[in-house]
Structures are given as structure tokens and as C-alpha cells.
Amino acid sequence: MLKITLIGSGNLGSHLFQHWKANSQVKLNQWLRRSRTERTIDGVSCIGSPSEIEPADAYVMAVPDREIESLSTQLPPTGMAVHCSGSMSLDILRNKGTKGVLYPLQSFSSERQLNFNSIPFFLETLTAREQTVLQALVDSLSTHQYWLNSAQRLQLHLAAVFANNFTNHCYEVAGRICEANKIPFDVLLPLIHETASKVAVMKPIKAQTGPAIRNDQLVLEKHQSILKNKTDKQLYQFISQAIQNSENEQL
Amino acid sequence: MLKITLIGSGNLGSHLFQHWKANSQVKLNQWLRRSRTERTIDGVSCIGSPSEIEPADAYVMAVPDREIESLSTQLPPTGMAVHCSGSMSLDILRNKGTKGVLYPLQSFSSERQLNFNSIPFFLETLTAREQTVLQALVDSLSTHQYWLNSAQRLQLHLAAVFANNFTNHCYEVAGRICEANKIPFDVLLPLIHETASKVAVMKPIKAQTGPAIRNDQLVLEKHQSILKNKTDKQLYQFISQAIQNSENEQL
After folding, report:
1. Coil, helix or strand for A144?
2. A105 to B208: CB separation less than 8 angstroms, yes or no
3. Nearest CB partner across the interface for A198, out of B109, B208, B226
4. Which of A45, B55, B160, B250 fits a 20 to 30 Å CA distance from A186?
């Protein structure tokens, strides 16, 4: 059974802890938490400093990107250093042992329960021989496994920014417009849900509707005339134009 | 029982027909379709021209915005003209009878089944006395009923453009990035679903994650350096800045 050390107690680290603490496929040996207050949690030994890390098969670093490199130099000389970042390459890891990446494509919040098995994981090692350890690690998490190199993973991370952070910003603007007009945000939820569900069965460009793709100048102008927030108005103009460009490139 | 004429056979018109053709609360008397080929469909009389419209309690116009005004002048002198547009005001209706608006906040596709009862409807009439007919009409469709004036409805329609068309454009860019890098679009679906589900339980601004809100310059620059499409790159810069502005306005 794989003996692992989990490093980090942010959103991802805490979700991994909950999943691994009583998992029959891995033995969670230690949990390194920035603010250690307990010696053990649910039978797992908690430590407060990288110097306390014992040798293990894998050290899973669920930490901010900027901390990965320096932390990797402080790991024991045997075992695999694993980072979970979408945008950092494999060779940022400076440990003496083997190196791997385990990137879960999901947005983790402390408030939300998530089922790891529905999450796709993106994996990378330097050599095929090193895949075994990473494979055992991901087998304990999800059946949705993909091998990607660092350049592809960065592209995927970029795609995720559009699909997650940027759509969420659109929800935010929509929410502000509702709020300013005393309309409950909840009335948008069926539309948001349908929009997200549609792209599971048809390409987004085929699913596009609305005044921009119809080139409905009357509605486009009406909308701009009532948008008071300058940034929102520019965003409206910019995305409307981008939708029309996409449509034209398809022709 | 309300006797109604349905006008239009686009996405909304076709969905309304399917819902009303065997509904116990309304009597669908006629269906005006641009390209009439059958005399009846499922027992409902089909007509091809506004001149064939018989007097009814309500004439529901599921037609493009630009056709509403002219079509309304051709309706019988009694009964309520009802349009279904988010962006057109009530007073665009020029019929001699009463006037109403019935705006369903949803994106209709011919390929997708929808349950009307999960859709919020936004209603408007000129006087309270006229609400009865519209109320009977919407009772046959959904329990999610809201009364909004034309100005509020236009704001809601604008919010829907952000929540639906603009998020869909973000999905499209994400899909193109995946395609160019030989990554299946499907791997984004759990993230898209989670992002859409989160805003049902927390405000979008609280749900925001990613490099822009963390002001992670390293990742922001990496992403921009790999974005080859000029419009996508400008969109990336613009929304990233907008996310940071929103965050600052919250402080």
C-alpha cells in the first residue's frame, strides 16, 4: 500500500485529507498543515514543518504555486514529489527523488462537498517507469485519468480559466444587474443550468443564441444604453463582437 | 377555459405547442405557422396567414422581436395580444384589444426537451383588471410567476445575456483551446457543472477563484503568452482586469 504524506490544508488539501484519511488503497502517514494545532486528526499524524516529514512513497503538495519549488527542496531524498498545479511544469520540482504531477480539474471550495471520482485528473512523470507510483495514487481518487505533458496541462488550465473563472464573472455581472433592479438572482438559475448542460450534448458555437449572434442591433443598442457600469458596458461590447467574430470564422 | 391562438413555430413556438396541444387548462384553437403544410397537427387547426386568425381570448406571439408590432395590428379586435420578448416593451403592441407580456427566461433549442414548470415567467399587463387572462395563461405553464414592468424586463434580459450567451462564449473559447491541444472538451464538463451549481448556494463574487482574483501575475502572464488568437487574448486581459476591479469594489 502506498505510504503518502499530504502537504497543505487549503481547499484542495482539506478535500484530499477527507478522502484519504480512511482510504483502503493508500496509507496517509502524515499531514503537514501550516497552522498545526492537533498532533493527530482522525488517526493521521499532523506536523507543522517540512523538517518533520518522514520518508514516504509520495509527497503530495497541495500548496500555492509559488511555494512548490522551495518546498520540493526540503523533501526526503527518496520517494516521489507530486504537485497538483495546472500551470506549473514538472521540472519545477527540485527534490532528489522522483517527480510527478497530479492535477485535478475542479474548483474546490471549503463549503462544497465533492465526489473525487467525478473529477478528471491529469498526470505526468518524467519516465514511464515512474508512472506506477502516480498511477497507484490516482487510482485511489478517480477513474478519470489522463496523461498530459506540462505544455498541454498549461493549455488545459487556461481553458479552465475561461470555463470557470470567466463564466463566473459573467454570473457576477448578471447578479449585479438583477440586484440593482430588485430581481432575485435565483430566477437566473434554470437558465444558467440549461446553458451549462447544453454544452454536454452540443458544441458551444452551435448552442449560441442571443442578440449578438443574431446581429440584432436594436437589442444590442438597448442593452448598451442601460448599462451604467463602464467596465460591464465595455465587456458587453467586447464579447458581443467576439461572438460575431466566432460566427464569421465558422462560415 | 382560455381559448388561445399560438403564433410562431420557432424554438419557443414549437415548445409551447407541445405543451399546450393536450393541456386541460387551455384550449389551443389555432396555430399560425410560417410554412403551413398540414391543416391540423395533433387536432389543432393550422393556419398560414394572420388573416385566418379567429377571435380568441389570447394570441400568443412567439415570433422575432421585429415582427411583433406589425403582427399585432393584424389581430382580431377582441382578446389579448401577448408577446414573449424580454427586450420589447408592452406598448409595442398595437392591437385593438388588451395587451400582455409573457416572457419565459430560458434558452430554447429544438434539440432539447424542457419542463416548462421549472422555467420562470415574467408577466406584464397595463391594468390590474387585465391580469386575469394572463394569469390563467401562465398558470397552464409554470408556477414560477413574476410581475415585472417593461424597464425591469429589459434589465433582466440583459442579465440573461451575461448569464447565458456570454458564459456560452467562454465555453466556446475553452473548447477551442482544448481542441487545438488534443484534449477532449468533455474533461471540462464537471468543472462547468460545478461552477454553475456553486452560484445557487453562494454569491458569484464569493465563488470566484483563479489567477485573476489571486492577482497571480506569473500565471496571468503565462496564459497570455500561449494565447495565439488575438480576440481571445484581449478577452483574457479584459475579464481578468474586470475580475480584479470587482474584487477591489467589494473591499
Report:
1. coil
2. no
3. B109
4. B250
| CB-based contact A200 B178, cutoff 8 Å | no
Q: Extract the residue ranges of chain B whose pLDDT is less than 50.
A: none
Any idea what the Cα angle at residue B193 is, between residues B190 and B195, rounded to 5°? 110
In this structure, what C-alpha cell is assigned to residue A28?
Answer: 496517509
Q: Which residue of A has its CA nearest to B203?
A: A172
Q: Which pLDDT score, from 0 to 100, does residue A32 have?
A: 97
Give one DSSP letter per residue of A174-207, joined into a string: HHHHHHHTT--GGGGHHHHHHHHHHTTTS-HHHH
Q: How far is CA B43 from the centre of its chain?
A: 28
Residue in A with minimal Cα distance to B107: A191
Phi, psi of A76 (to 5 degrees): -55, 155
Distance (Å, whole) CA B45 – CA B41: 7
Whether residues B112 and A198 touch (CB distance < 8 A) is answered with yes
| Minimal-distance CA residue of chain B relative to A210 | B165
Opening angle at CA B79, ends B75 and B85, nearest 5: 70
* Percent residues over pLDDT 70 in chain A: 99
Residue with cell 463602464: A230
Half-sphere exposure in the Cβ direction for A197 (13 Å, CA) = 15
Q: How far apart are CA B178 and CA A230, in angstroms?
A: 32
Closest CA–CA distance from residue A54 to any residue of chain B (Å): 32
Closest CA relative to residue A121, chosen from A103, A136, A134: A103
Range list of β-strands (E), chain A: 2-7, 26-32, 40-41, 44-47, 58-61, 80-83, 98-104, 121-125, 145-147
Instruction: For residue A158, give the nearest of B210, B204, B164 by alpha carbon.
Output: B210
Average pLDDT, chain A: 95
Task: Determine the pLDDT at residue B251.
Answer: 56
Query: Is there a contact between B208 and A144 if contact means CB atoms under 8 Å apart?
Result: no
B229 contact residues in A (CB cutoff 8 A): none
The C-alpha cell of A222 is what?
438597448
Q: For B210, how many CA atoms within 13 A lie in the half-sphere containing its CB? A: 31
pLDDT given at position B37: 79
Chain-chain contact of A218 with B114 (C-beta, under 8 angstroms): no
- pTM, 2 dp: 0.94
ipTM: 0.94
* Alpha carbon of B140: minimum distance to chain A alpha carbons (Å): 19
Nine cell digits for residue A56? 514516504
Q: Which helix (H) or strand (E) holds B248?
A: helix B230-250
Percent of chain A at pLDDT above 90?
89
Please name the amino acid found at residue A15.
H
CA distance A118 to A14: 17
